[in-house]
């Protein structure tokens, strides 16, 4: 579990993200509200235990929830970071940066970048508009 790993000699950072994969209901939450509730519960746990989280989301509701938890637990801005895919929700990414938070931008590259990106778009077609706009407008 996270707490056991975090007590080792080498500190561990975590990326908290909600996947876009279709999983059976037996092992995954299906409802948007449930998914977001559990995401924020996990983030709160990480803050309570002093774990450095990568808050990986393009969901503005989760970003707002993260801000509330950061304020509640008085988390210094250097004790967490937000993470986003390049080209997706660039205006949200910029607003997070303007608030002074760390931002890690994920950019697929290498021999299989195109296959990976195509698969991601098939899994979540709503991302296509954001990615195309981000690449050709402001990235």
Please give a handful of descriptors for the protein shown.
139 residues; alpha/beta; TIM Barrel; four-stranded parallel sheet; 6 helices; 49% helix
Q: Strand order, biggest sheet?
A: 1-2-3-4
CATH topology: TIM Barrel
Tell me the β content: 5-15%
Q: What class would the helix/strand composition place it in?
A: alpha/beta
Helicity level: 40-55%
Outline the low-pLDDT stretches. Answer: none
User: Overall 3D geometry?
Assistant: globular
Major β-sheet annotation: 4 strands, parallel
Radius of gyration: 16 Å
Give a structural overview.
With 139 residues, this protein is of the alpha/beta class. The chain has a single domain (2-138), classed as TIM Barrel. 49% of the residues lie in helices and 13% in strands. The chain has six helices and four strands. It has helices at residues 2-6, 32-48, 60-72, 90-98, 113-123, 126-138; strands spanning 14-17, 53-56, 81-85, 102-106. It has a four-stranded parallel sheet with strand order 1-2-3-4, with helices on one face. Helix 4 links the parallel strand 3 (81-85) and strand 4 (102-106). Helix 2 (32-48) runs parallel beside helix 3 (60-72). The radius of gyration is 16 Å and the shape is globular. The mean pLDDT is 86.
